[in-house]
Amino acid sequence: MRHTRQWPKLTVFLTHGEVPLDNSRCEDAIRPFVVGRKGWLFSDTVKGAVASANLYSLVETAKANGVEPHAYLSLLFERLPQAKSVEDFEKLMPWNVKAALSAAAQRFVVV
Asked: Who's near 102: CB < 8 A, 6+ residues apart?
């Protein structure tokens, strides 16, 4: 029976506590795109659709790493033209700029 080969994969969460029981986090992340799909149905060009997908990927990656998307994109678009090496690009990843963005946000907090 084919389905019995999949059983170990289906029960992995029983032996590994860090594995979530469901994929709600993934479904929540893609919900805005599913809702917006009708509006994007008539995208003008393939390049435009690819550009949108890239932008949404950046936004969702920032959110997944606890980084406010607008602040991240502002920093990214400011620093990206100066990036020349792989190391420069890696420094711009959300998990690497999180501390800098948090520090910058603290400066603007009104008490």
From this structure: none
3-state helix, strand, coil in the chain (%, to 5): 75, 0, 25
Q: Record the tokens describing residue 96, joined without a space.
A: 């690497």
Tokens 């994969």 — which residue? 9
pTM flag (> 0.70): no
What is the separation of C-alpha 104 from the centre of its chain, rounded to a whole number of angstroms?
21
The answer to whether residues 35 and 29 touch, using CB atoms and an 8 Å cutoff, is: no
What are the pLDDT digits (tens) for 27-55? 887 787 777 766 666 667 888 778 878 88
Question: CA 63, CA 92: separation in Å to the nearest integer?
Answer: 15
Structure tokens at 79: 């620093």
